[in-house]
Design brief:
Elements: E1 2-3, E2 6-7, E3 12-14, E4 17-20, H1 22-34, H2 37-44, H3 48-61, E5 67-70, E6 78-81, H4 83-100, H5 106-112
Antiparallel strand pairs: 1-2, 3-4, 5-6
Helix pairs in contact: 1-2, 2-3
Length: about 120
Amino acid sequence: MRIGPLKVKAQLYCGEEIAMGPGKADLLDAIRAAGSISRAARAMGMSYRRTWMLVDGMNRCWAERVVETTAGGGKRSGARLTAFGERLLALYRALEADLARAGESDAFAALAAHLRKTPQAPDAR
């Protein structure tokens, strides 16, 4: 999210792996809307394999499954966020909102007061 000259991006790590970040939150939104990993992948312009790997990573990083899948091709097949996944996504979005308010802080205002609009040209020494 960008607020004036401030860009804040929350990434939660599980070891070296990103367990949740803006892209994974968007993927969870797409899975919720599409009801399928493949349809979510298409909607986000990603390969199915990459999307599946992101979902698998989230499921391995959190204490509970984030996304459940049902194979078969019938009405019951597809993917959905678990109750835990829904809660996780809501908490992450709340964290993003909290971080967005950093742009309203006194510390940010003090820093921004000294920030140039554009960088100066490099010295030609």
